[in-house]
Amino acid sequence: MIVGRDKNGRIVKNVSKFSPEEKAERLRQLSRETYARNREKVIAKVKEYKSKRPWLKTYKNITNRCCADKEHHYYKKGIKRLIKPDELKTLWFRDKAYEMRCPSIDRIDSSKDYTLANCRYLDKVYNVRE
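-> C-alpha coordinates emitted (130 positions)
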Protein backbone atom coordinates (compact mmCIF):
# COMPACT_ATOMS: atom_id res chain seq x y z
CA MET A 1 0.00 0.00 0.00
CA ILE A 2 1.37 3.38 -0.97
CA VAL A 3 0.54 6.42 1.10
CA GLY A 4 0.20 9.82 -0.51
CA ARG A 5 -1.57 13.15 -0.19
CA ASP A 6 -4.35 14.48 -2.34
CA LYS A 7 -4.44 18.01 -3.78
CA ASN A 8 -5.94 19.37 -0.52
CA GLY A 9 -3.16 17.88 1.59
CA ARG A 10 -5.22 15.03 3.06
CA ILE A 11 -3.52 11.66 3.47
CA VAL A 12 -4.63 9.09 0.90
CA LYS A 13 -3.78 5.43 1.53
CA ASN A 14 -4.30 4.14 -2.00
CA VAL A 15 -2.43 6.14 -4.60
CA SER A 16 -3.14 3.73 -7.44
CA LYS A 17 -5.76 6.10 -8.87
CA PHE A 18 -3.04 8.69 -9.56
CA SER A 19 -0.96 8.80 -12.73
CA PRO A 20 2.69 7.64 -12.50
CA GLU A 21 3.88 11.26 -12.55
CA GLU A 22 1.52 12.18 -9.70
CA LYS A 23 2.64 9.12 -7.71
CA ALA A 24 6.30 10.06 -8.15
CA GLU A 25 5.69 13.67 -7.14
CA ARG A 26 3.69 12.64 -4.09
CA LEU A 27 6.38 10.21 -2.97
CA ARG A 28 9.05 12.91 -3.42
CA GLN A 29 6.93 15.26 -1.31
CA LEU A 30 6.53 12.62 1.41
CA SER A 31 10.30 12.02 1.33
CA ARG A 32 10.94 15.75 1.77
CA GLU A 33 8.46 15.92 4.66
CA THR A 34 9.95 12.83 6.32
CA TYR A 35 13.46 14.24 5.95
CA ALA A 36 12.35 17.60 7.37
CA ARG A 37 10.82 15.87 10.41
CA ASN A 38 13.85 13.66 10.97
CA ARG A 39 16.64 15.95 9.76
CA GLU A 40 18.73 15.77 12.93
CA LYS A 41 18.44 11.98 13.08
CA VAL A 42 19.43 11.65 9.42
CA ILE A 43 22.45 13.94 9.88
CA ALA A 44 23.51 12.03 13.00
CA LYS A 45 23.25 8.68 11.16
CA VAL A 46 25.29 9.98 8.22
CA LYS A 47 28.00 11.32 10.58
CA GLU A 48 28.08 8.00 12.43
CA TYR A 49 28.37 6.07 9.16
CA LYS A 50 31.18 8.30 7.90
CA SER A 51 33.06 8.21 11.22
CA LYS A 52 33.08 4.40 11.11
CA ARG A 53 34.28 4.35 7.47
CA PRO A 54 36.78 7.21 7.02
CA TRP A 55 38.42 5.54 4.00
CA LEU A 56 35.25 6.28 2.00
CA LYS A 57 36.16 9.99 2.09
CA THR A 58 39.46 9.07 0.44
CA TYR A 59 37.57 7.05 -2.18
CA LYS A 60 35.29 10.02 -2.90
CA ASN A 61 38.28 12.36 -3.24
CA ILE A 62 40.08 9.97 -5.60
CA THR A 63 36.90 9.66 -7.67
CA ASN A 64 36.61 13.45 -7.89
CA ARG A 65 40.23 13.75 -9.05
CA CYS A 66 40.18 10.94 -11.59
CA CYS A 67 36.63 10.56 -12.83
CA ALA A 68 34.26 13.40 -11.98
CA ASP A 69 36.24 16.56 -12.73
CA LYS A 70 37.24 16.56 -16.40
CA GLU A 71 39.36 19.68 -15.83
CA HIS A 72 41.47 18.16 -13.03
CA HIS A 73 45.08 17.51 -14.04
CA TYR A 74 44.86 13.85 -12.84
CA TYR A 75 42.06 13.25 -15.35
CA LYS A 76 43.99 14.99 -18.09
CA LYS A 77 47.12 12.91 -17.32
CA GLY A 78 45.05 9.71 -17.56
CA ILE A 79 45.43 8.68 -13.90
CA LYS A 80 42.76 6.07 -13.16
CA ARG A 81 41.04 4.95 -9.97
CA LEU A 82 41.53 1.18 -9.98
CA ILE A 83 41.35 0.81 -6.21
CA LYS A 84 38.11 -0.27 -4.52
CA PRO A 85 36.69 0.87 -1.16
CA ASP A 86 37.44 -2.48 0.50
CA GLU A 87 41.07 -2.19 -0.66
CA LEU A 88 41.24 1.32 0.84
CA LYS A 89 39.95 -0.18 4.09
CA THR A 90 42.81 -2.71 3.94
CA LEU A 91 45.30 0.14 3.41
CA TRP A 92 43.69 2.14 6.25
CA PHE A 93 44.42 -0.60 8.77
CA ARG A 94 47.71 -1.78 7.21
CA ASP A 95 49.22 1.70 7.37
CA LYS A 96 47.52 2.54 10.70
CA ALA A 97 45.92 5.65 9.25
CA TYR A 98 43.58 5.74 12.25
CA GLU A 99 46.58 6.80 14.37
CA MET A 100 47.56 9.65 12.05
CA ARG A 101 46.61 13.25 12.72
CA CYS A 102 45.55 13.91 9.13
CA PRO A 103 45.82 10.77 6.96
CA SER A 104 46.35 11.33 3.25
CA ILE A 105 46.52 8.87 0.37
CA ASP A 106 49.85 8.74 -1.45
CA ARG A 107 50.71 7.10 -4.76
CA ILE A 108 54.17 5.56 -4.39
CA ASP A 109 54.87 6.06 -8.11
CA SER A 110 53.08 9.27 -9.05
CA SER A 111 53.01 8.38 -12.75
CA LYS A 112 50.91 5.26 -12.11
CA ASP A 113 47.22 4.78 -11.29
CA TYR A 114 45.52 4.43 -7.91
CA THR A 115 45.95 0.70 -7.18
CA LEU A 116 46.38 -1.29 -3.99
CA ALA A 117 50.05 -1.96 -4.81
CA ASN A 118 50.78 1.70 -5.64
CA CYS A 119 49.04 3.42 -2.71
CA ARG A 120 49.70 4.01 0.96
CA TYR A 121 48.44 6.31 3.68
CA LEU A 122 50.80 8.97 5.00
CA ASP A 123 50.27 11.80 7.40
CA LYS A 124 49.50 14.87 5.30
CA VAL A 125 52.52 16.71 6.71
CA TYR A 126 54.85 14.09 5.18
CA ASN A 127 52.84 13.64 2.00
CA VAL A 128 53.06 17.34 1.13
CA ARG A 129 56.87 17.28 1.53
CA GLU A 130 57.30 14.50 -1.05
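The chain has six helices and four strands.
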